[in-house]
């Protein structure tokens, strides 16, 4: 079974391994791990990187309990459909409960059937059939 580790400041080498495996054209944002409101969880099977997720703690204007936004999750092909993704989500849910978060959410497309199955199997529920995501992109 997968072992889950939350990466923090000092774990930049492990974070670079994630970036190298999942974002080959990317580079590690060196400040990500030093912000305690950012969560990077890595899954290892027999000591080998199997997958990861990253999420953001979002403070609320109207109440003291924050929300968790699960921004991205991915599992290497050879470890898919073996419970790695679900174990990553379960660990993030544990963190949310332990720290008193109000809720956790993720955005996906209906056409992403694998993600839909994963989120449902981990206890997520679809809140509305008509949710739409708008995006603004800014080029540097």
CATH topology: Aminopeptidase
Query: How many DSSP helices?
Result: 3
Category from helices, strands and their pairing: alpha+beta
Total domain count: 1
Q: Say which CATH homologous superfamily is assigned.
A: Gcn5-related N-acetyltransferase (GNAT)
Unreliable stretches (pLDDT < 50, length at least 5) are: none
Task: Estimate the global geometry from the Cα principal axes.
Answer: globular
Strand order in the sheet with the most strands:
1-2-3-4-5
User: Mean of the pLDDT scores?
Assistant: 95
| Assembly state (oligomeric) | single chain
How is the main sheet built?
5 strands, mixed
Q: Give the fraction of residues assigned to helices.
A: 25-40%
Listing every helix as H and every strand as E from the N terminus to the C terminus, the arrangement reads EHEEEHEH
Q: Mind telling me which CATH architecture this is?
A: 3-Layer(aba) Sandwich
Gyration radius (Cα, Å) is 15 Å
Question: Per DSSP, what share of the residues sits in E-state strands of 2 or more residues?
Answer: 25-35%
Please explain how this structure is put together.
The protein has 140 residues and is an alpha+beta fold. The chain has one domain: 3-Layer(aba) Sandwich (Aminopeptidase), CATH 3.40.630. Helix content is 26%, strand content 26%. It has three helices and five strands. The protein has a five-stranded mixed sheet, with helices on both faces. The longest helix has 16 residues. It is globular. The protein starts with a strand and ends in a 19-residue tail after the last helix. The mean pLDDT is 95.
């Amino acid at each position: 079974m997968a072992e889950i580790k939350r990466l923090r400041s000092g774990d930049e080498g492990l974070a670079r391994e994630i970036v190298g495996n999942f974002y080959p054209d990317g580079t590690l944002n060196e400040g990500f791990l030093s912000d305690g409101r950012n969560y990077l969880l890595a899954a290892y099977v027999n000591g080998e990187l199997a997958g990861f997720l990253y999420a953001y703690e979002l403070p609320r204007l109207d109440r003291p309990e924050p929300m968790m936004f699960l921004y991205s999750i991915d599992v290497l092909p050879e470890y898919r459909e073996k419970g790695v993704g679900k174990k990553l989500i379960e660990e993030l849910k544990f963190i949310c409960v332990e720290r008193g978060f109000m809720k956790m959410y993720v955005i996906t497309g209906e056409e992403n059937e694998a993600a839909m199955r994963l989120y449902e199997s981990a206890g997520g529920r679809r809140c509305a059939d008509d949710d739409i995501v708008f995006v603004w992109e800014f080029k540097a």
